Amino acid sequence: MKQESPPRKSIDSWLGKAIPRGQVSEVFLPVSESYSGISLSIPLQIHRSDVDGPTVFVTAALHGDELNGTGAVRELILDKEFRLKKGSLILVPILNLLAFDRHSRYMPDRRDLNRCFPGSPNGSLASRVADTIFTEIVGRCDFGIDLHTASIRRTNYPNVRADMSDPRVAALAKHFGTEVIVDGAGIDGSLRKEACRQGCPTIVLEGGEVWKVEPAIVETAVRGVKNVLAHLDMIDFAKEIPEQQLVVKRTQWVRADGGGFLQFHVRPGQVVEINQPLATNTDLLGHQNRIMEAPFDGVIIGMTTIPAVGPGQPVFHIGKLPKDTDPDELRESRQSEENLEQRTVEDLASNVMVVDHEESRYPES
């Protein structure tokens, strides 16, 4: 449930430092201390226009090993031609510095920071960091974009996660411009859900793998951020929206029925139809054990990158196509050399070996 919005903190100054209009400023936000008592601070870049307007945050690496978003934020930071015509933008390349320094998803106290918001100044380490982030960053903003990747040993086809029941959130999600939008309010304690509860409409981009900066994912993220800023009339930018956008209300993990070594037949982002073979599970000598099939017409929004599986392990995350979506029309909408969605499918597929099911040959057990 959306709560009454608290008063926004001013963007005019931060930690006693003036943030002038019409300039780009840097702030180092203390979030914790080392064992030696040295202050640990996350770097922020703040863009301000001379003209009043919304304040937007773009955060990356809330999980410290999810670096695609960091690559995207750095592209914006390094773009010398990037200018706001109104409002303010807070860019945060690494939100979870403590996890980033350990090449880890989690905080040193083994907590998931993205389950600790809005946090508490007197709580655990993760809760205290969450409180600082929520107070000092979210508390100054009108809108938010949080950039994520799949968890370890998985990859995600770019998709926005958003509570489409909130009109302001839905507008952000659609204008961001991914082909797939997964509808849902999110998990209690997550930055996205708690920011929305506090009256700061926020969306999440999920795309790619951990520990990587993948060109197609970075391009998707940068394009999406600029699309949103153009939607809010904060920059001049010709918005780029896919020919088709799917609002997915149901997703399902297809899990392995038994152990074995998989031969994948589909790739991240591929459009599939009900009962289509997704992978063949074999023993180590190549004897076919089982064939995994699509439970409905859908799109592969996530999948494992490790072909060795055990019983019950998740392999394919499928978003069910809306009833009015024709799989063939969706495939045809991507058929262009300049189509970012198709290029993303091809780029992500370079991390897994995919063989067409009709061309595969396995001896029977």
From TrEMBL:
User: What Gene3D superfamilies does the entry give?
Assistant: Zn peptidases (3.40.630.10)
Which Pfam families did the record assign?
AstE_AspA_cat (PF24827)
Instruction: Please give the organism.
Output: Rubripirellula amarantea
Q: Which InterPro entries match?
A: AstE_AspA_cat, N-alpha-Ac-DABA-like, N-alpha-Ac-DABA_deacetylase
Q: Residue ranges under compositional bias (Basic and acidic residues)?
A: 321-344
- What region holds the Succinylglutamate desuccinylase/Aspartoacylase catalytic domain? 52-232
Cofactors named for this entry: Zn(2+)
Keyword annotations for this protein? Hydrolase, Metal-binding, Zinc
Q: Which CDD domains does the record match to this protein?
A: M14_ASTE_ASPA-like
Transmembrane parts of this sequence: none
Name of the protein this chain belongs to: Aspartoacylase
> Does RNA-binding appear among the keywords?
no
**One of the record's GO molecular function terms:** metal ion binding
Q: Give the lineage.
A: Bacteria, Pseudomonadati, Planctomycetota, Planctomycetia, Pirellulales
Query: Annotated region Disordered: where?
Result: 320-344
SUPFAM superfamilies in UniProt:
Zn-dependent exopeptidases (SSF53187)
PANTHER family in the cross-refs? BLL3975 PROTEIN
